[in-house]
């Protein structure tokens, strides 16, 4: 199969779809890989590194979109990218369609087949292609939140870990999945007073078992969510209903009850965010303030630590990329229902129920898409 990797073009996105090691695995299996020149510059991999791994370097993204049978990316295609996709072509990347009607319409119009990293499943009920970036974003959340808490950045002027004789910051994490657990772990490591809220009691039990009293857990009733959020210095938004738009857990009218200068890090922003006042921001201009609450809502947080993130992402995506290239997408999805769960768009139709529900499309059932 001819596989193409364009350079990412989202604001401050330095990750790349394939590492040189992944290219080598694909070419050893008989596939041809085209990489846009300088696509790996942001992770410290040169065109020569890719050539040594067996890739061909091409000068423009247009050459990739015109020729590749499978396009492998990291971020959802931007307008100029989805306008170049075409029928019969396979796109394998993050999509986050539910909060993004324009991209969804663009992919439908293209006629291409699109498999979203974030809805591929595993046998334990996890999301194996989302998890590595959730680990990264979760671990970054206290770090970016701590910066936002500084006075010069609009924050309360509170140090996460406090000092002897002065209490640490109160950090509340809504959603105790991969992002939430990783955020809590780092915040606790920085000395903060950390509580995780979730609606899944089994998950709270797991967190309690693993972290003991270092991290408090609380069932996410409306009452307890409000009480904890209103008393917090930093709130991390980390909920997910796979493929769906994030539920809005804190409304605009509740924001004024939060402490002035407190900070929201809404990691769930890629699915639309779990605060009503959240709007996606970029690494170039990551925060804004509403009602004295600093909002950090960067939708591609892992792009800032592109090298760590790209290698972690490829560890997870490579087996699926190989299956797609070796068998073609249809057979690969027939053989693996977990990969098939990633199918979001095929031949002008939405094929993922939560996306269809969020945006008002008919859903083409998976069996029909695979027939
Ligand atoms: N902004 C960024 O750069 C990145 C964003 N993300 C996003 O972060 C979000 C979280 O991802 P993961 O942690 O991997 O998901 P996950 O599925 O591991 O965890 C989500 C948790 O939210 C809980 N939950 C769902 N509804 C809830 C509610 N109403 N109240 C309390 N808890 C609730 C679930 O029980 C689950 O434990 C996703 O939207 C993901 O796409 C992930 C990576 C990077
Ligand atoms: C998951 C996601 O949105 C990201 O890594 O950018
Ligand atoms: Mg994102």
UniProtKB/TrEMBL annotation:
GO CC annotations on file: plasma membrane
Domain Alanine dehydrogenase/pyridine nucleotide transhydrogenase NAD(H)-binding: 149-297
Domain called Alanine dehydrogenase/pyridine nucleotide transhydrogenase N-terminal: residue spans: 4-137
Name of protein: Alanine dehydrogenase
CDD domains tied to this protein: L-AlaDH (cd05305)
Catalysed conversion reaction: L-alanine + NAD(+) + H2O = pyruvate + NH4(+) + NADH + H(+)
Gene Ontology process terms (BP): L-alanine catabolic process
NAD recorded as keyword: yes
Binding site for NAD(+): 134, 198, 203, 239-240, 267-270, 298-301
GO molecular function: alanine dehydrogenase activity; nucleotide binding
PROSITE patterns, A to Z: ALADH_PNT_2
Family label: Belongs to the AlaDH/PNT family.
Keyword Iron applies: no
Enzyme class, UniProt record, top EC level: oxidoreductase
Signal sequence region: none
EC number annotated for this UniProt entry: 1.4.1.1
Organism: Thalassospira profundimaris
Keywords: NAD, Nucleotide-binding, Oxidoreductase
Active-site residues (renumbered): 96, 270
Residues that bind substrate: 15, 75
